[in-house]
Amino acid sequence: MVDRDAYTDLALDMDEFWVFGYGSLMWNPGFAYEEKSEALIFGYRRALCVLSWVHRGTKASPGLVLGLDRGGACRGTAFRIGESERDDVLAYLRERELVTNVYLERLLPIRLSDGRRVTAVAYVVDRNHRQYAGSLDTIAAAQIVNSASGQSGPNDAYVFNTLEHLREMGIRDQWLEHVTGEIERMRQAS
C-alpha cells in the first residue's frame, strides 16, 4: 500500500494536468481523460530495466518490466486529465506505479504531436532501488523474460503484448524487438 502522505502533490500547481505513459499506461490508462496525444520525452528511454517481484516474477525468480530510464528519447502517450479528476487520477497512479517504490514520480517536459510543450507527471525508474536491473544485453534480458512468471502472468506475455501494442500505435522499439527475437530463438533451440 502506498503512503500518500509521503508524496507531495506535484501536480497541484499545473495549469493543465498531463500524464505521460510509455508502457501499459498508453493503451490501458485505467482513468478518464479529456485529451490524448502522442508525445515525446527527451532525456529518457523506454527500457526493460525493472526487476518485477510481484506482477511478472517473484523475489526468487524476478521478471523484467518497463521503466523510463535515463538517456535518449521516448515516444509515448500523454493524457490531459480534467480538473475535477486530478486528485483521483493521481491517487490511482500512485497506487498503480508506486507499489514497491522502484519508480519516482516526476514532473517532466514533453512535446505533444501538435508541437505544444507541456509538463506531465511521469514515473521514472529509481536507479538506486534494488529492483533496478541496469542495462542488460538482449540475451540476458531474454533469459529473464523467458523464465519468469508472477501474479499477473508470464513475463514473456507482458513483453510480447507490449511490443504488439507499440506496433499498433506506430511506435518502433528495436531493443524490445531484439529481446523478443532472442526469446523466439531460445524456444526454437529447445
From TrEMBL:
Residues annotated as transmembrane: none
Entries under SUPFAM superfamilies matching the protein: Gamma-glutamyl cyclotransferase-like (SSF110857)
GO CC annotations, alphabetized: cytoplasm
Pfam family, one: ChaC
InterPro entries found in the cross-reference section: ChaC, GGCT-like, GGCT-like_sf
Gene Ontology MF terms: glutathione specific gamma-glutamylcyclotransferase activity; transferase activity
GO biological process: glutathione catabolic process
UniProt EC number: 4.3.2.7
Cross-referenced Gene3D superfamilies: Gamma-glutamyl cyclotransferase-like
UniProt KW keywords: Lyase, Transferase
Protein name: glutathione-specific gamma-glutamylcyclotransferase
Naturally occurring in which organism (per UniProt): Rhizobium tubonense
Taxonomic lineage of the native organism: Bacteria, Pseudomonadati, Pseudomonadota, Alphaproteobacteria, Hyphomicrobiales
